[in-house]
Design goal:
It contains 4 helices and 8 strands; from the N terminus they run E-H-E-H-E-E-H-E-E-E-H-E. By secondary structure, it is an alpha/beta fold. Strand 2, helix 2 and strand 3 form a beta-alpha-beta unit.
Length: 186
């Protein structure tokens, strides 16, 4: 699978995640315990990788969870297909924790808004931070990531594809043109 121009290779994805983990560890030294929660699908996989890195850096257990935001999206009624539903897993107390929400690409901010809404159905964390592998701009909501793997200036006519070994057989980020018939991006 190789559509679009590769902007992050496997090694660059790995380095970006290591850097993000170090930034999270540095920023959360004296505060509450850190937990990592990924947004399905690729954000959840990236969260698993960050959790391992953070556990090693912080020398403590770092709870891991994942969120399905399909029914929290504000465009669920206007999407051409019904959302694919994945179970959410948050089996730890959120209170007095800094929760780092992890997603693959930050675009309009609507996915993150939905994730925050879903997260608060599970409890009230002390703080919520956002880590993304790629920030492509074009925000429609006032949402800004705390940790970014790579800023990718894009046009609205482009699509950012994040591929991960667990689902796609390769780790990479590519930018390609949006297919005219799709019209829907995340």
């Amino acid at each position: 699978m190789n559509d679009g121009k590769i902007v992050l290779t496997e090694d660059e994805v790995a380095r970006a995640l290591v850097r993000i983990a170090h930034e999270i560890a540095e920023r959360n030294t004296s505060s509450s315990a850190v937990a990592v929660i990924g947004i399905h699908r690729r954000g959840a996989i990236l969260a698993q990788r960050l959790q391992v890195l953070l556990r090693d850096l912080l020398h403590t257990d770092v709870p891991l969870g994942d969120l399905d935001i399909g029914f929290y999206r504000d465009d669920v009624a206007s999407r051409p297909q019904a959302p694919v539903v994945h179970a959410s897993h948050i089996d730890f107390d959120l209170s007095q924790r800094t929760v780092v929400i992890v997603d693959d690409v930050l675009y309009t901010g609507r996915t993150v808004r939905a994730a925050i809404e879903a997260l608060f159905d599970y409890g009230r964390p002390e703080r919520v931070q956002l880590a993304v592998l790629a920030d492509r701009g074009h925000r429609e909501l006032p949402i800004r990531p705390d940790y970014v793997g790579k800023n990718l200036p894009t046009s609205r006519g482009e699509h950012v594809s994040v591929r991960v070994k667990e689902l796609d057989g390769v780790d990479e980020v590519a930018i390609g043109r949006v297919a005219v018939e799709s019209g829907v991006s995340t």
